[in-house]
Write a structure and sequence with these properties.
Number of domains: 2
Distance between the termini: 13 Å
Oligomer: single chain
InterPro entries: UCP028589
Largest sheet: 8 strands, antiparallel
Helix content: under 10%
Number of strands: 16
Order of helices and strands: EEEEHEEEEEEEEEEEHE
Number of helices: 2
Strand content: 35-45%
Radius of gyration: 28 Å
Shape: elongated
């Protein structure tokens, strides 16, 4: 044991979908990950003796072994968000919407949300026969990205109004639209004290949903993922692999 054996690790974290043969698919770097923790735990059943008069600990039966994983992600990519939201990101193509009905009974200064966001080339008509175009001076775009528009004047036109516009391509991340994903986790690590490299592999990781996602915050945002490394029976018979994962370092 020497001072050069002290450690402070950093490194790149990769996630991969686990294929049916137990091998990883393409690895995805999750970006800056300031924290990756592995917490091992056992549940014991203790037996005390009954012959000394002191009820001393006489035996211990290990009932279960768990390996908990905590991963902090700094980058809110669609793929990172999807890990904690149980989602499969879907690309919604750009396109055009014609004559989208707005809510009836609108008044001046009302703000309404269109069905799609990232809008452009917006125009509006009313429900008269034939339809009458509503002048652009009668409305404004509150937020093009969110598809919010406001009305300055509604008098003199027949409601409900209709909106026609172009919308941009978006990535849709729906909450809870897929079963909990199972991943393989890899850490390409380095001990910043001595420069020694290390590789960490967890064979089956199941993350819990994100407990809290700060949608508005005064501080840097982060995604806190917690979960467990599950037992991999296909590797458990090999003592070099183990049933949960392994840490590899070059022998010096």
């Amino acid at each position: 044991m020497a001072a050069q054996d002290l450690f402070s690790f950093q490194g790149k974290v990769y996630l991969a979908q686990r294929r049916t043969n137990g091998k990883p698919g393409p690895l995805r770097w999750v970006g800056n990950a300031p924290q990756l923790q592995l917490a091992l735990e056992v549940q014991n059943s203790d037996k005390t003796e009954s012959f000394s008069g002191n009820r001393m600990l006489y035996g211990r039966l290990v009932q279960s072994k768990t390996a908990n994983v905590n991963l902090t992600l700094d980058e809110a990519t669609p793929e990172n968000l999807a890990e904690g939201l149980y989602s499969i990101p879907a690309t919604l193509p750009a396109g055009a919407i014609s004559n989208e009905l707005l809510p009836p009974g609108l008044k001046a200064n009302d703000v309404i949300a269109l069905d799609r966001g990232w809008i452009s080339e917006l125009s509006m008509t009313d429900s008269a026969t034939p339809p009458v175009t509503i002048p652009p001076a009668n409305w404004w775009t509150e937020s093009a990205s969110s598809g919010l528009i406001g009305l300055r004047k509604v008098d003199g036109h027949t409601q409900p109004f209709k909106a026609t516009y172009q919308h941009g391509e978006t990535v849709n991340i729906a909450l809870f639209n897929t079963p909990p994903p199972e991943r393989m986790l890899f850490l390409d690590g380095i001990n910043t004290v001595n420069g020694r490299r290390a590789k960490v592999t967890l064979y089956r990781v199941a993350f819990n949903p994100i407990e809290q996602l700060d949608l508005i915050s005064e501080e840097w945002g982060s995604l806190q993922l917690s979960g467990a490394a599950l037992f991999d029976e296909t590797r458990a018979l090999d003592p070099a692999l183990g049933g949960f994962g392994r840490i590899e370092m070059v022998k010096e």
